[in-house]
């Protein structure tokens, strides 16, 4: 076998393996969507139904209740607040630890790493008592506060890699050409940081949108985020679980995330490749 033939065979084998892995990865998503369209008798049948022929949208009608829209509004509010606040503070912190040399800088960077190693469950009691003392339990502000604290360390660490990758000489050259410091920053450095901000924003968005345990501690049963609302669909006492409705709810919860990814995927990919791996 010639060298060219061997390379082609290797490439075909790698591509085939990649396709198989992709199919295994996407099958649970397909099964979720498929089940959302099937009637209950087909879902409970011993023979699985792999295509939703003869299905309908009745499961979606059962979950599109006022509770769903209230939970959607709550999750969107909390997520947007967390992304905005986390990006502002992470951006300023990353600039500080990357551009300036000050006493305690290495200790601050080390503290960011240490904070990320603390299990979230270890902080539940202190966070609950803190929010209770501030009258922030069962509120958007309280939940947003603990989410920002949870995502901020990794966001700072990620953005620091992007800022390190942009030479400060670019700003200095712009200032020599007549730009002020602030104008040089916003004209030169800030556009180059856009991929990093997008990648960090995606991380904060996913953490806040999908978080479950902290919301269980902070929010009341009558004021639930989407993950808590979805859990409520699967926990039904004294009667069978409506799995098509559960899967329809999961599809509706995933839709905003898919839309968000479609909007930012180009920037996110370039951002993850260009700076996220820098220490």
UniProtKB/TrEMBL annotation:
Record carries keyword Transport: yes
Keywords (A to Z) from UniProt: Cell membrane, Membrane, Transmembrane, Transmembrane helix, Transport
A Pfam entry, by short name: BPD_transp_1
TM stretches of this protein: 12-33, 74-96, 108-128, 140-163, 184-206, 243-264
Highest taxon, organism lineage: Bacteria
Any one cellular-component term (Gene Ontology): plasma membrane
Entries under SUPFAM superfamilies matching the protein: MetI-like
Residue span(s) of domain ABC transmembrane type-1: 72-264
GO biological process: transmembrane transport
InterPro entries reported for this sequence: BP-dep_ABC_trans_perm, MetI-like, MetI-like_sf
Keyword Membrane: yes
Places the protein is found: Cell membrane
Bilayer topology term: Multi-pass membrane protein
Family: Belongs to the binding-protein-dependent transport system permease family.
Protein name in the entry: Carbohydrate ABC transporter permease
Taxonomic source organism: Jonesiaceae bacterium BS-20
């Amino acid at each position: 076998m010639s060298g060219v033939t061997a390379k082609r065979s290797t490439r075909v084998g790698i591509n085939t393996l990649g396709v198989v892995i992709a199919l295994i990865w996407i099958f649970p998503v397909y099964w979720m969507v498929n089940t959302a369209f099937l009637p209950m008798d087909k879902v409970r049948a011993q023979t699985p139904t792999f295509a939703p022929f003869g299905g309908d949208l009745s499961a979606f009608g059962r979950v599109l209740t006022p509770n769903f829209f209230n939970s959607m509004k709550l999750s969107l509010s909390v997520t947007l607040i967390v992304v905005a606040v986390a990006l502002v503070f992470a951006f300023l912190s990353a600039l500080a630890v990357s551009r300036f040399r000050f006493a305690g800088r290495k200790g601050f960077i080390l503290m960011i790493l240490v904070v990320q190693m603390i299990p979230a469950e270890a902080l539940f009691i202190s966070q609950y008592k803190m929010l209770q003392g501030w009258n922030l339990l069962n509120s958007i502000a309280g939940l947003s506060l603990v989410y920002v604290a949870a995502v901020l360390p990794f966001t700072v660490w990620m953005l620091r890699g992007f800022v390190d990758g942009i030479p400060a000489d670019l700003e200095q050259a712009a200032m020599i050409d007549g730009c002020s410091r602030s104008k040089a920053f916003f004209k030169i450095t800030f556009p180059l940081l856009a991929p990093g901000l997008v990648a960090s924003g995606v991380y904060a968005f996913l953490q806040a949108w999908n978080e479950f345990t902290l919301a269980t501690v902070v929010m009341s049963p009558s004021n639930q985020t989407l993950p808590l609302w979805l859990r409520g669909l699967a926990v039904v006492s004294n009667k069978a679980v409506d799995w098509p409705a559960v899967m329809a709810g999961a599809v509706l919860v995933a839709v905003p995330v898919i839309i968000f990814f479609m909007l930012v995927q180009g920037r996110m990919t370039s951002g993850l490749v260009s700076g996220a791996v820098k220490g």
